[in-house]
Design goal:
Blueprint (H helix, E strand, L loop, with lengths): L1 E6 L6 H11 L5 E7 L4 E6 L4 H9 L5
Antiparallel strand pairs: 1-3, 2-3
């Protein structure tokens, strides 16, 4: 199991959290996610490469 932390610069409410959850819910390799909205961080516990997760999050355009 790996932990990867993503900076989600435009995540400032529960609505962005829900968008991310919906985007990542079909990923079989994700075991859990921890959202830190005040610090705009997302910890993802997963197996395998994180790049598929990163690409999915990037498509939401919340990181920049």
């Amino acid at each position: 199991m790996q932990k990867t932390t993503f900076a989600i610069l435009k995540m400032d409410s529960a609505s962005e959290e829900q968008l991310i959850r919906l985007k990542l819910e079909h990923f079989q390799n994700i075991s859990s996610m921890q959202f830190d909205i005040p610090n705009r961080r997302l910890n993802v516990y997963h197996t395998g490469d994180y790049n598929l997760i990163l690409n999915a999050i990037s498509n939401l355009q919340l990181a920049k």
